[in-house]
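Case study: Glycosyl hydrolase family 43.
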Amino acid sequence: MRLNDIHLRDPYVLPVREHGTYYLYGTTGRTAWDGRPEGFDVYTSKDLTEWEGPYPAFRPDASFWADREYWAPEVHVYRGKYYMFATFKAEGRCRAVQILRADHPLGPFAPNGEGPVTPADWECLDGTLYVDESGLPWMVFCHEWLQVKNGKMCAVRLTEELDAAIGDPVVLFRAADASWVVPVEGDDRFVTDGPFLVREEDGRLLMLWSSCGKDGYAIGIAHSDSGQLAGSWRQEPTALFGKDGGHGMLFADFSDRLLLSIHVPNVHPQERPAFFPVRQDGDSLLMVDR
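Here is what the predicted structure looks like once written out:
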């Protein structure tokens, strides 16, 4: 199958060179908003063009706490294991990020730790792993606009086993800090979605993240002026991708070409994964004309 045949939101690509394989994860389009999801699937490819699958990567057992809105899985390699950071929801419980673990990118993934690593009384989503300059693991995630109006981008330390949070989250920035962001409802509600951190070769630290722009769902870039997770974070004035597509991440293909993975359009049920070449331009990133 081709990418146009795969109904996914929030596409995340894990290239594994020793396998010669790309692994594609994402929010299952069919159950993104309604219905009971089966879990998360994974697709595989040798060339980013022809894909096989879906294969079941995570299937919850009867004791798993969440039964709806399984969103935005992304898989990171950490200390020889594969860790899936994903968003879940249940009736009477706040949306939360749970970390899962497996020995192989195909899974099966199983819960890592006793439950979510986001605060129990916060509506949260879109956790991503960041390992700082001292080798300490952190999770960057969103404190959702539905609860706080001006969505927050937050970070929290994780244990070495990635099975629990250490201490309280810290706020990195808020959605309305970026001039390209427009309110999603009324005039005081601003979205934070989809953080993804990029450490440049020269040590600079960037973050891709999504919100609503003037032409729909969009991706912007934030810069840490200190080069550290604590920031301060400076927002670029215009979006990297500004027209009805988002939740981006970067990966290098096996030819070391840098690609941006997003879903487009941001309209259900039309959303599909798409890859776009990007390049470093000074201290930022630019889309490359094909």
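For the exam, be able to explain this: The chain has one domain: 3-287.
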